[in-house]
Amino acid sequence: MPHLKPLHMPGIGYRSIGSPSFNLFNGFSRSLENAKLLHSAVVGDLLDTVNHKGFSTVQAKAPPQARQTGALKVSIVSPGFIYEPYERREPISFWRRWFTRRGWKRTKEDMFLELKSAYAVAKLRKLKGYSKQQFYNEAIQLYKEINTLMAKGDKTLLRKFVTENMYSILKNEIKQRESMWSSVYWEMIGPAVKVRTLRARMIGVDKNDLNKGFIQLTLEILTKQKFAAYDSKGTLISGDKTKEVLVRDIWVFERSLFHSGAYWRLCGRIAV
Questions:
Q1: For 100, how many CA atoms within 13 A lie in the half-sphere containing its CB?
Q2: Spatial separation of the C-alpha atoms in residues 207 and 212, rounded to whole Å
Q3: How far is CA 225 from CA 8, 17, 211, 236, in A?
Q4: pLDDT digits (tens, 9 = 90+) for 224-243
Q5: Res 27: pLDDT
Q6: Which residues pair with 253 in a beta bridge?
Q7: Which residues, 6+ apart, have CB-to-CB distance to 147 below 8 Å?
Q8: Beta strand 265-270 pairing with 213-230
């Protein structure tokens, strides 16, 4: 998919209600960064012939309580952290990349990051029959569901779609918002403008079985939305439900490779 330039319109904003940098006082007031992001290409099954143990996964440790009691089996429903959170890398010129020592080092680092992503996607495809388009459809549906539940303040249903650590964060955000706003209107307009994978990582939980682990996929999601916040008297405080805004989010979705009936859940958000 070609890179889309951000839209520049009067009064436009760039934050969803579920964004980590969403400002409770001025809603969608900050502008979208006008810079290209590193595109994470997926190499597919290329790495199946490579020994991945040294670089492609991180081992999630058992809780201290389990280690102290000598428990032999630990059921980990989520690692509880984002492994290698995505960060935008500054562009580098062709000349610097291929004709300087620093450029060669940068090229090696970039290739290393891409190989990690490719390995994680290859594992996901092999064990769960991963389809990028199907995953994007599921991710957008999850994105809409979570934002809708956040707007409604429905903490009960929200728990189903996010990891335990993420649920604690969102619950506190809802509590903070409800202390300031009586009600919130949120709507996503049409299909997503843009969805792309920025990073894929695998987190292993058993060093003797590389198929036991969690996959984390980081997506950039660009959508058109409507947002408005009201006080107890129905007076508009922030936003405008009649106006569309372009919103860019970076969300991290997680799925277990070894739990029966596992499905994608939101495990984190990265500020943009």
A1: 9
A2: 9
A3: 15, 10, 39, 17
A4: 999 999 999 999 999 999 99
A5: 35
A6: 217, 266
A7: 16, 17, 18, 186, 188
A8: unpaired
